[in-house]
């Protein structure tokens, strides 16, 4: 089916992509980095937790907090966080769970793992939307299970946010990304690269097929070699497009005859996002 898609994709790309996603039993999901805020006031426990997390290459410790107030401040002010790992007891003042509740009321919704020596009643954490509870002392295996559960939760939320749509990447293996994962798709000497904020994945699917498939997801062919997710643009300078939270060097181009058209479309889109 995949080879059939590549050969006939120009004519029936949308239909065959959907069939591939639904029928692809061998599909795997590439792991995007998860930026985590850790709230833990015990230095020894923090060292143990960070040691276990170090074995997960896609987990990045982006911030730390030792008190409830620090937790609230970090989670409210930072825009790069993907998730939190909290201890219930955070020194003096608010507990981790109380601070998490305040964040929810303020509209900060970060998937969270609760690490604690005294697990609260299940109904309490269910109502708050805690992804998993890991009781101390715990093993690397138990934390790995929680991380996998967190990853599944993030993948599902991203899938729903993107309108229930997966974008296939077909090369040596089949990957699936949501439109929100992708910054732009680039064609270089007949090689197709699907760019996320931190990686680039080679694909055998033609850029024109991606254009047709993603036409309702704010992707725009800014240049014959670049299909851009307009929602991910941070700014435009001349014919160069820059992206939010992208690794250095992640840039796309605009064809000279499209510069005014693209800039106008993007400026109007910003008003609605």
From TrEMBL:
Annotated SUPFAM superfamilies: CheY-like (SSF52172)
Record-annotated Response regulatory domain positions: 35-151
Keyword Transmembrane helix attached: no
Matches recorded under InterPro entries: CheY-like_superfamily, LytR-like, LytTR_DNA-bd_dom, Sig_transdc_resp-reg_receiver
Keywords annotated in UniProt: DNA-binding, Phosphoprotein
Top-level taxon: Bacteria
Entry-annotated residues carrying 4-aspartylphosphate: 87
Entry-linked Pfam families: LytTR, Response_reg
Name of protein: DNA-binding response regulator
Species: Brevibacillus nitrificans
Phylogenetic placement of the source organism: Bacteria, Bacillati, Bacillota, Bacilli, Bacillales
